[in-house]
Structure prediction request, 96 residues.
Amino acid sequence: MFVIILKYIKPLTEVDRFLGEHSEFMKPYYASGSFLMSGRQEPRKGGIIICYANSRLEIETMIQNDPFNREKVAEYEIIEFLPSMVAPQLADFKNK
Prediction:
Protein backbone atom coordinates (compact mmCIF):
# COMPACT_ATOMS: atom_id res chain seq x y z
CA MET A 1 0.00 0.00 0.00
CA PHE A 2 1.10 3.53 -0.64
CA VAL A 3 0.16 7.02 0.39
CA ILE A 4 0.91 9.64 -2.23
CA ILE A 5 1.10 13.16 -0.84
CA LEU A 6 0.83 15.99 -3.33
CA LYS A 7 2.09 19.41 -2.34
CA TYR A 8 1.06 22.32 -4.54
CA ILE A 9 4.03 24.40 -5.62
CA LYS A 10 2.11 26.86 -7.79
CA PRO A 11 -0.79 29.18 -6.89
CA LEU A 12 -4.24 27.61 -6.68
CA THR A 13 -5.25 29.46 -9.84
CA GLU A 14 -2.66 27.35 -11.70
CA VAL A 15 -3.72 24.15 -9.90
CA ASP A 16 -7.36 24.79 -10.79
CA ARG A 17 -6.50 25.11 -14.48
CA PHE A 18 -5.48 21.43 -14.52
CA LEU A 19 -7.91 20.01 -11.96
CA GLY A 20 -10.27 18.57 -14.58
CA GLU A 21 -7.43 16.84 -16.42
CA HIS A 22 -6.08 15.56 -13.11
CA SER A 23 -9.48 14.03 -12.29
CA GLU A 24 -9.61 12.38 -15.72
CA PHE A 25 -6.08 11.04 -15.23
CA MET A 26 -7.20 9.33 -12.02
CA LYS A 27 -10.31 7.56 -13.41
CA PRO A 28 -8.53 4.57 -15.03
CA TYR A 29 -6.55 3.97 -11.83
CA TYR A 30 -9.78 3.89 -9.81
CA ALA A 31 -11.30 1.54 -12.39
CA SER A 32 -8.32 -0.83 -12.12
CA GLY A 33 -8.39 -0.81 -8.30
CA SER A 34 -5.03 0.94 -7.94
CA PHE A 35 -6.42 4.16 -6.47
CA LEU A 36 -8.61 3.52 -3.46
CA MET A 37 -9.26 6.99 -2.07
CA SER A 38 -8.16 10.55 -2.78
CA GLY A 39 -8.93 14.13 -1.91
CA ARG A 40 -7.53 17.53 -1.22
CA GLN A 41 -5.88 18.55 2.02
CA GLU A 42 -7.51 21.09 4.29
CA PRO A 43 -6.28 23.79 4.22
CA ARG A 44 -5.95 23.38 0.48
CA LYS A 45 -2.21 23.00 0.05
CA GLY A 46 -2.17 19.67 -1.78
CA GLY A 47 -3.83 16.29 -1.94
CA ILE A 48 -3.65 12.70 -0.78
CA ILE A 49 -4.05 9.46 -2.75
CA ILE A 50 -4.32 6.07 -1.06
CA CYS A 51 -3.07 3.55 -3.58
CA TYR A 52 -2.41 -0.14 -4.05
CA ALA A 53 0.50 -0.97 -6.35
CA ASN A 54 3.12 -3.69 -6.66
CA SER A 55 6.07 -1.35 -6.37
CA ARG A 56 7.23 2.21 -5.89
CA LEU A 57 8.34 2.19 -9.52
CA GLU A 58 4.76 1.48 -10.57
CA ILE A 59 3.62 4.56 -8.63
CA GLU A 60 6.38 6.71 -10.11
CA THR A 61 5.32 5.61 -13.58
CA MET A 62 1.68 6.51 -12.85
CA ILE A 63 2.67 9.95 -11.61
CA GLN A 64 4.55 10.71 -14.82
CA ASN A 65 1.19 10.88 -16.60
CA ASP A 66 -0.49 13.20 -14.08
CA PRO A 67 -1.16 16.67 -15.53
CA PHE A 68 -0.16 18.13 -12.15
CA ASN A 69 3.29 16.61 -12.72
CA ARG A 70 3.46 17.57 -16.40
CA GLU A 71 2.63 21.20 -15.60
CA LYS A 72 4.85 21.24 -12.48
CA VAL A 73 2.07 22.45 -10.18
CA ALA A 74 2.68 19.75 -7.54
CA GLU A 75 5.46 17.79 -5.90
CA TYR A 76 4.90 14.20 -4.83
CA GLU A 77 5.95 12.23 -1.77
CA ILE A 78 5.41 8.48 -1.95
CA ILE A 79 5.17 6.57 1.32
CA GLU A 80 4.94 2.78 1.32
CA PHE A 81 3.34 1.05 4.29
CA LEU A 82 2.31 -2.46 5.24
CA PRO A 83 -1.12 -2.52 6.88
CA SER A 84 -1.04 -4.51 10.12
CA MET A 85 -4.43 -3.43 11.46
CA VAL A 86 -7.47 -2.58 9.36
CA ALA A 87 -11.16 -1.90 9.82
CA PRO A 88 -13.32 -4.93 9.03
CA GLN A 89 -14.56 -3.44 5.75
CA LEU A 90 -10.94 -3.09 4.58
CA ALA A 91 -9.73 -6.55 5.67
CA ASP A 92 -8.81 -7.55 2.10
CA PHE A 93 -6.01 -4.97 2.11
CA LYS A 94 -4.20 -6.37 5.14
CA ASN A 95 -2.53 -9.19 3.20
CA LYS A 96 -1.74 -7.40 -0.05
In short: The beta strands are 2-8, 35-40, 46-51, 74-80.
